[in-house]
## 1
Amino acid sequence: MALHIGGTVNRISRYTLALGFVLTACGLYLTARPTIAQPGPKKMTPADGHTIHVTAPHILNGKEMGPFHHYCKPVSDTVIECLIYDNDDPKALLTQVEYFVAKSVTTPTVPLRTWNTYYHDHGIEIAGGRVKVLDASDADAKKIADLASKTDGIIFSLWPEGAKAPNGTVAHPQAVGHKPMTEAEYTSPKR
């Protein structure tokens, strides 16, 4: 009879040991699965990198609006692009786009009449004190402002203020304080 009890105990011990191994393996699999299932590094998209956060007001049809939240990134040595929202809520609508184009590009390629109508000088806008660089140290904010000062801006407003949907029109707001330039001012090396 003792042998029979010992055989039953051995079978229960083997069963318990096997069950323990299975449960341990399942636990390890479930713990490791999120790591195993994750793909490699996330593929970058053109929307990534708009991390320079700036606020500035705009003027459209004589009405000052904003300040607008610009989320910008350099896309080349001569262009910075900004996605512009009315506020910084994560669900805010993209209402405008602005391009910061190096003055070394705009001056020889954009006629003065076009520049006076659609562009503005970021050096003048920044000097006016209405532009705020957010989410950056004072030193980084100064570097960003210095870089932006060497550019001209052109804004495309895609979503009319107060509209429930875009209507296909594109407006061109200006920087508050924008003044048309003369040919001499526009082509000045000091600009």
## 2
Amino acid sequence: MTPSHNNGCVKNGVEPAVYINGSGVKKSLAGEKTWSYVTFKRLLFLLVAFTSVTQYYLSLPFYFFPIILLLLFVPIFVSNLAVNNVFYCLWERYQQESKINKYIKFNDEETKKKFENKFIPMRDLYELYADEKIDFIDDVLQTLERRNEFVSYKLQWWHLKFFVMKFLPEMLKHDKAQDEEQVVEHYDRGNDFYNAFLGPMMVYTSGIRYNETETLEEIQENKIKDVCEKIQLKEGERHLDIGCGWGTLVNYAAENYGSKSTGVTLAQNQVEWALNKAKGKEILDKVNYLTMDYREIPNEKYDKITCLEMAEHVGIRLFPTFLEQVSEMLEDDGIFYLQIAGIRRAWQWEDMLWGFFMDTYIFPGADASLPLLFSVGQLEAAGFEVESVKTIGIHYSDTIKNWYHNWIRPEVKIEMVKKYGIRLYNVWAIFLSWSTIIAKQGNSTCYQIVAHKNFNHYPRRRFIQNNKTKSE
């Protein structure tokens, strides 16, 4: 069947993989092949070539080579991305007509003059929306589902400045003061803020959906039960949850499995919420909450350790140290469960722009959100054996979509705007809607990893028995 000249139209809420431009040229609408053209091999070649030429013309000794390589890395890396992005934007929208007027309402003449009938860079789109200089004619999520009809994935000078001045320094630093500032500012914003979209379960991680009729609370309970089953939690076992959030997993484990569960978080508001829930369930004797940095967790032994979407904040540089700490606290026959958000290795330009958005407004410092290869490789290097990995990106999309629909309720909008302002409300509307799409189409995902210490004498047969029990 030959596609028609649809100029990137979306039918039934599903974006086509390709469109036919006015010249009859078949092109990828979302930059599906980006990773093929902007590769690490090409970057390495450019680094070695430019370093060699620089060393030759400056007549420097051979031992200066690594120094020059380091000095040239950032400018060559940025230049390589910029040049490829310019050509991508020129080619991707070549002879394609923007339909921005169909989806966007301009609230001031200056903005209208600048973007009317044009493709708008993604960052300009969400910044202008946050500042109420534009509005979406339809629902935010529905509009962003059609974004490829009027959006350009263009890198701007702001991205360069952010990468050099903020992202790189924070990635290299990741000390306690930085992490505390970023995490506390985000998670201690107010329990009412998070309850507005997370709902009564107060779980800020991906759920697990088994059927289309399940509610947000049901898919979150599915996930929490799944975690407890995967770590084979038993009564009386010592369980540590690093990055426990509002304590839902800790309280559930203690109440339903009889474990002695400890939760760790930097946010005092989360601990207060968790303890209040534990009191209502009459399980205060089975739970313990520590308000501290993960690096300050007392070096005690636990039978089971869980970490659900907190390890991203550890950062790339400190990830090996974090896993060594987990290994030290885990009993030799224990189980470690890591749920971590990640990105695909075959990246696209939208992946990068979404990552900039997330690091700026939602999860600053979460630079360890990487392809699966990173997490598995680091676990194995730390002496763990990976027992199983499950990708749950589509489950995350459904989870975030539920959060989004909670967030856009009229009564929630009135309350949130009154307390936190329209800009923050609009930024979160973009975050929840865009992230629903990103997780659905695979730009970002989430991995559930079950691991244990890689000892010869480890009781691996326990996983066969557990699987058999489940199948029965």
## 3
Amino acid sequence: MFEKRNLGPPLTERKSTCDVTGNAGGSLKTESTDMERKSASDFPPEVLKLFDSYVHGWMSRRDFLDRAQKYAVGGFTAAAMLESLRPNYAFAQQVPKDDPRIKTEYLTYPSPQGSGTMRGYYARPANAAGKLPGVVVIHENRGLNPYIEDVARRLAVANFLAFAPDALTPAGGYPGDEEKAAQLFGQLDAGKRTEDLMAAYTMLKARPECTGKVGAVGFCFGGTTVNQMAVRFSDLAAAVPFYGGQPSAADAAKIKAPLMLHYAALDERIDAGWPAYEAALKANGVKYQMFMYPNTNHGFHNDTTPRYDEAAAKLAWSRTLAFLNENLRT
């Protein structure tokens, strides 16, 4: 069942919950030179769908430009739309790298079933009193970019140990260019890549400053991976996938971790898998909460592109922090 709530402008929501008893409840470069933040409403919906295909590697740049040109108006050409849609990481700096409240560093960790040795970004409170719970942060299909590092710092400010692995480590790490990152990502061995990211959970859980309670948060590809983590690790304390692909019904039956799932209402591709996933979660008594954010696009939490929706992103993040606190600190 769904409970509809009207929170008033600019955001409404649809929420579905179920507890264990079953009760309802150019190239794509790193930064844009245009510092004006555009919103999804500045683009035809069809262009946003084309861009989704482009960033996920299902469409070439040339194909995007050819197909988007029919929606061009005045000086807002297909090339200009692509330029405006690419990430601008200056927008994502919510917590500065040198914020005195936190400590950050890059760590290597073993991945014996994957690529051998991996690397990731570790952020933690500067003046922690005792051990703290951990959160693994899984990136999109472009590696450990500045947006994901900032998400890790946001978690550290919230008094968590946050570790964000870089799946591109075997390819030399995130290259600083989004199009190159996507190309490298597509060349990775998918099986080893999965093991490399799963090993980050094992590493963080074993850190001496960690309480042993670890959750996971992921976005897009990372959301899919967090769902897989929930399948893999029976002791995962909490899982928060943002617009992630869903596991099979057979795999969903293995999940023990409580879930908080965030979806964008305009993300038809990912949302199509939700009804079957929900049925599997209910059938197996998995504790979950699902939030569907109306009028939002895939990637709405990523504050580097026009698909970002500030109201939805802030609401989803406040819910995420509350959920992690509830499940990792008790």
